[in-house]
From TrEMBL:
Domain of life: Eukaryota
Classification via Gene3D superfamilies: Ribonuclease H-like superfamily/Ribonuclease H
Name the record gives this protein: RNase H type-1 domain-containing protein
GO molecular function: nucleic acid binding; RNA-DNA hybrid ribonuclease activity
InterPro entries: RNase_H-like_dom_plant, RNase_H-like_EbsB-rel, RNaseH-like_sf, RNaseH_domain, RNaseH_sf
Pfam entry (one): RVT_3
Boundaries of every RNase H type-1 domain copy: 16-137
Length: 177
C-alpha cells in the first residue's frame, strides 16, 4: 500500500521540507512547501547553500529553512515534516547534540520557540514528494526563490496529485467485507 500526504489539523499548517546535495560541489538545495488542511499551498520556496559539509547538514539546513519560512509567513501552529529520520529524531530530543550538525539542531530548537505550537515528524519520500521536487529543481533554477500560494511549475503535478489522493478514502476503508 502506498503512502500519501496527510493534511494537518484545521488550525495548523503543514510545512514539508527536503534537500538535494551535490557532493563534489559541496552545494545543497532546500525545498519547502506550506499547505493548509485543505491541501492548498500557502507558500513554497527553494534556497541554495554553498560550502555544505554533507547530506546530514543539507537536511538540517532544509529543516531550518522550513521553519524560518513558516515563521516569516506568520504561521503560529505548524507541523514540520521531512523524510530525514535522523533530523527528526535529533530535533525531538532534549539533550545537547554534539554531532557535526549540532549547531543546526540547536538553531532549529531555538527557532521553534517562536511558535505557539510546533511538532516535528518523519514521513517517507512518497509523502514528501512536493518538497523533494522543489529541492531537486533548485540547482536547475540556479538561485533562491519563493512563491506565494503556489509551487514552481515543475511541482504543480505532484501537488495536485497529493490533493487528489487526500480526498480519496483509504484503501482499507474502501474494502467492502
Amino acid at each position: 500500500m502506498s503512502s500519501k500526504w496527510l493534511p494537518p489539523d484545521r488550525r495548523a499548517v503543514k510545512v514539508n521540507f527536503d534537500a538535494a546535495f551535490c557532493q563534489h560541489l559541496k552545494q545543497s538545495s532546500s525545498g519547502v512547501v506550506i499547505r493548509n488542511n485543505l491541501g492548498l499551498v500557502m507558500g513554497s520556496g527553494v534556497v541554495l547553500y554553498s560550502h555544505v559539509a554533507d547530506a546530514f547538514a543539507t537536511e538540517a539546513l532544509a529543516c531550518l529553512h522550513a521553519i524560518t519560512f513558516a515563521r516569516d509567513k506568520g504561521f503560529q501552529k505548524v507541523v514540520v515534516e521531512g523524510d530525514s529520520r535522523t533530523i527528526t529524531i535529533k530535533v525531538q530530543k532534549v539533550v545537547l547534540d554534539r554531532s557535526a550538525i549540532g549547531v543546526y539542531v540547536k538553531e532549529i530548537r531555538m527557532m521553534a520557540l517562536n511558535f505557539d505550537s510546533i511538532s516535528f515528524q518523519h514521513t517517507d519520500r512518497e509523502s514528501n514528494l512536493v518538497a523533494h521536487t522543489i529541492a531537486s529543481m533548485g540547482f536547475k533554477i540556479g538561485n533562491s526563490q519563493y512563491w506565494v500560494e503556489e509551487v514552481p511549475p515543475d511541482a504543480v503535478a505532484v501537488t495536485e496529485q497529493d490533493r487528489h489522493l487526500m480526498q480519496q478514502p483509504d484503501q482499507a476503508r474502501s474494502i467492502v467485507a
